[in-house]
Amino acid sequence: MMYTIIDVETTGQSNRMTEISVFKFDGHQVIDEFTSLINPEAFIPQHITALTGIDSDMVADAPTFAEVAQDILKITEDTIFVAHNVNFDYNVIQGEFKRIGQEFTRKKLCTVRLSRRLIPGHRSYSLGKICKALDINLVDRHRAKGDAEATVILFELLLQQPNSENVFKEFLNKNSRESTLPPNLLKEKFEALPTTAGIYYFKNKKGKVIYVGKAINIKKRVLSHFYSKTKKSLEMVRETGDVDFESSGSELVALLMEDAAIKHHFPIYNKVAKRAIQSFSIFSYEDRKGILHLASNKTKLVPSPIITLFNVRDVRSYLEKICGKFNLCPKYCHLQEAVSECSHYNIKNCNGICRDEESVESYNNRVLEAIHDMSNQKDDVVLKEKGRNEDEEAFVMIKDGEYLGYGFIGKHEQINHIDDLNTFLIPQKNSVDIQKILRPVLMSR
3-state DSSP call for residue 190? Predict the structure, then answer.
């Protein structure tokens, strides 16, 4: 069996290659080598230069990846691609080939995961620390040739370990997940994940939560991150040292749990979830003729909102529904602007307030009924959801329109009043994000 042991250096953020070193290894000795600086055709940040010593001047006259692509294809042909944290190096090279319109596919092995299995018990499996622990001389750290040479020695040591043949076969099995799992994540941790609904936590090697997600099938969703080739996923997976989870029973409870967990941990890879959500509120006002209007605006500009929604389309749809239900005028519900009389394509049941065919008092009474109807959505509500197992149910509690939290309760428990659920309630904070999650559920009831 032939191996190519590879290390690449990159520009960091854009992951363009700046250096590559490939050692062809037959299991006993190195039989070929290819090492070269690469012109990334991109800026090399100062912090990368500080780490690797490679700056823009060094690569100015170096070949581009396109100019060395055939050399890389030739030396790696019919070999197994080996690297320390293999998915990083493999994806960088695969990405460079993709940019020039070529495919690159090789079987691969990760010396981090192999080391964890064959030489367990070390505190760290980073290349620097595992080489120090095993007395492997590592020179020119963070340069492609120095790191690749050290990885060759480590790989040779792994081949000599008892049971290495079986472990290598297992890792190369196309049905094995070993090659897709993060290098620092134990396989047992992944296998322990359930196939049920809930939330999951990606943690770094220090145990800090770096990402929170929700899923209907936790194991399947977690695995999808490992296959993803997006920059965010690649960076996150590279940092992942542990995955934890909490079962929810249902997707709705998972969404609520996810929101609370993100707000508690502020994980660095949940940046989108930290953005403020724009909301819009419906309100009423009286014009000079004494006619009550229903209108909408950004919530922060509305002093007394009747109901809050989260995009203009939903606001318009909701006003159309209320307008039709209470025979209101599209003009005075601001569904039509700059018209003397309403002529809405869908709402035809205006009683004529815009044509002076109905009294202001009569019209206003129906507006007040509509406002009362909207305000009545602030009732006490208990949403029943599927439990985490067949012996329990989940619930979401809303009192006076205010979200109080969720909980789990055994099916044998006798509940006669909403207050009886307080014992099982897991209190949570209400927020605009939570309202956005719950609003579609409440509106569909």
Answer: helix
Q: What's the length of the chain?
A: 445
Q: Which amino acid is at 441?
A: V
E strands, 346-401, in order = 381-386, 392-399
Contact criterion met (CB below 8 Å) for 44 and 11: yes
Backbone angles phi, psi at 379, to 5 degrees: -90, 175
d(CA 313, CA 155): 59
Asked if residues 342 and 324 have their Cβ atoms less than 8 Å apart, the reply is no
Pairing of strands 3-10, 17-25: antiparallel
Partner residues linked to 286 by β-bridges = 292
Q: In whole angstroms, what is the distance from residue 212 CA to residue 209 CA? A: 7
Measured between alpha carbons, how far is 419 from 202 in angstroms, rounded to an integer?
36
Q: Side by side, which strands form the sheet with 392-399?
A: 381-386, 392-399, 402-410, 425-427
54 near 79, Cβ under 8 Å? no
Contact 80, 1 (CB under 8 A): yes
Burial group, residue 300, by CB count within 10 angstroms (0-12, 13-18, 19+): exposed
Amino acid occupying residue 142: H
Sheet holding 80-83, edge to edge: 30-37, 17-25, 3-10, 80-83, 108-110
Lay out the sheet containing 307-309: strands in order across. 292-298, 280-286, 307-309
Taking the C-alpha atoms of residue 73 and residue 349, their distance in angstroms, rounded to an integer, is 72
251-268 per-position pLDDT tens digit: 999 999 999 999 999 999
Query: How far apart (Å, rounded) are the C-alpha atoms in residues 428 and 398?
Result: 11
Per residue in 331-367, pLDDT (tens digit) is 999 999 999 999 988 899 999 999 999 999 999 999 9
DSSP 340-364: SS---SS-----SGGGT-S-HHHHH
Of 324, 334, 424, 440, nearest in space to 377 by CA: 440
Give per-residue pLDDT as tens, 184-198: 888 899 999 999 999
Distance CA 22, CA 8 (A): 9
For 47-68, b where at least 16 C-beta lie within 10 A, e where not — what string? ebbeebebeeebbeebeebbeb
Please check whether residue 48 is in contact with residue 14, taking contact to mean a CB–CB distance below 8 angstroms.
no
- Cα–Cα dist 281/299, whole Å: 5
- 357: how many CB neighbours lie within 10 A of its CB? 10
CA 402 – CA 393 distance, rounded (Å) = 21
**pLDDT tens across 75-98, in order?**
999 999 999 999 999 999 999 999
Q: What residues have CB less than 8 Å from 47, skipping those under 6 apart?
A: 12
